[in-house]
Design goal:
alpha/beta, C8orf32 fold, 7 helices, Transglutaminase-like
Length: 197
């Protein structure tokens, strides 16, 4: 799938905002630790992906009712849903000068259709964006880091009206950010997450 930038300026995918707060000490410290063993942008991006996928729990998998939405809070609490984990990964990538944005899928895997969050990144010298899914693996879910071939948690099933959105957002869409910021707990968030964009 060919991805398109929401903003024509790649600098928008390096900027900090309220959610992707990569200037925050929690993000800077995590980025510095990950960079210690990375000898290239690819190695750093892979390490950041593995860190978010494997050490930040998906709150639905663990039953954690806390809602996180700002990258620094996700890293501090070590929990979040796919959107929060994607925001954290985007912040870690931007902290090291790797353009990163947010992408989405509309999935019908539960009681109601839901928006699933992914990350798009553009490594130096790459002529295109690549999507990765830091959601977190579990039985039946095996997302891997790959910029050559997508290895996402889920493949969209068009027969169930699932959708791969091709837009790479520089910041979380307002309707999604509103739901994340205003939910008192994860149960309320599930009720209010948008079903699509």
């Amino acid at each position: 799938m060919e991805l398109t930038q929401q903003s024509p300026d790649v600098e928008a995918y390096l900027a900090a905002d309220a959610a992707i707060d990569h200037g925050h000490p929690h993000v800077e410290e995590a980025a510095a630790r990950l960079a210690l063993t990375a000898d290239s942008a690819y190695a750093y991006a892979h390490a950041a992906f593995d860190f978010v996928r494997d050490t930040i729990a998906h709150s639905a998998d663990t039953g954690d009712e806390r809602v996180t939405w700002r990258a620094s809070d996700v890293l501090a609490a070590r929990t979040g849903i796919c959107h929060a984990k994607s925001i954290a990964l985007a912040a870690l990538l931007r902290a090291r000068g790797i353009p990163a944005g947010l992408c989405y899928q509309r999935l019908a895997r539960g009681a109601k259709p839901m928006l699933h969050g992914l990350v798009a990144l553009r490594l130096p010298g790459a002529g295109r964006w690549a999507r990765v899914d830091p959601r977190g693996n579990k039985p039946g879910v095996d997302a891997q880091f790959s910029v050559e071939e997508e290895r996402l948690a889920w493949i969209v099933r068009t027969e169930f009206n699932e959708v791969d959105y091709s837009v790479v957002y520089a910041a979380p869409p307002g309707v999604l950010l509103h739901a994340l910021k205003n939910a008192r707990d994860r149960s309320e968030l599930w009720r209010n997450l948008p079903a699509g964009l």
